[in-house]
């Protein structure tokens, strides 16, 4: 996932500069998902926004969640701040807690925007695996129908307040993906494939900052249960839902700025 060897968007440092940033988009997203966040930052170091595997021109590899997390961890520049949204947050968490992240040049802090921490029971995994298998079949059958159904999930209800033009741009970007490659997100990086990171979070010595929308009650409750100041923190954004990159980019920028200054 190194710039020049992997597709993505590399943004030059701006203003007074700062720590390098590595920013991971969510499922059905793209590197451009972080554009409004970066625009709201007056100062930042070089920012690398890679395509996640299976998205856009990126190949649907590695072949496991843990291998993907290790791959991301190995590519992080020294002193980087790592951030991810939703699927990207889950992979960022795995990278931040990967064995490679124990090295001195591991991410100095990680921002987890609307990120899950892994399912706690085998029964939850079985149920989620069945759901993701159905979603994968729907995705492969008809991308447009899948996207239309995805956008009606209660998780995204708060987005209905956004301008139609904004939602239209989001839909167009989603429909540009290849459904066969996108299946990677369920079959390899789906929630059923993600380890339960609760114990690792409790033992982490590097800052992990969870950021959720107040309207996203499920993910807010997950994050709140793990708070361990000053290492593990959680902030909520009033009147916002799950996709904070779309609904509250200035708030995400403020969270990144705080991590850059501490």
Detailed description of the structure:
- 40% of the residues lie in helices and 13% in strands.
- By secondary structure, the protein is of the alpha/beta class.
- The chain has helices at 35-39, 65-75, 87-97, 122-141, 143-150, 164-175, 179-182, 184-187, 198-203, 217-224, 244-247, 249-261, and strands at residues 8-11, 21-24, 47-50, 81-85, 109-113, 208-213, 232-237.
- The model has no long low-confidence stretch (mean pLDDT 95).
- The two termini are 26 Å apart.
- 42% of the residues are buried.
- The protein has a 7-stranded mixed sheet, with helices on both faces.
- This is Putative 2-succinyl-6-hydroxy-2,4-cyclohexadiene-1-carboxylate synthase.
- Residues 21-255 form the AB hydrolase-1 domain.
- Keywords: Lyase.
- One of its GO terms (molecular function) is lyase activity.
Summarize the structure.
The protein is α/β, with parallel strands linked by helices and 262 residues long.
The chain-level mean pLDDT equals 95
Percentage beta strand = 5-15%
Q: Helix count? A: 12
Considering the protein shown, what is the CATH homologous superfamily of the largest domain?
Answer: Alpha/Beta hydrolase fold, catalytic domain
Number of strands: 7
Classified by CATH, the class of the largest domain is Alpha Beta
Pfam families: Abhydrolase_6
Domain AB hydrolase-1: 21-255
Keywords: Lyase
GO molecular function: lyase activity
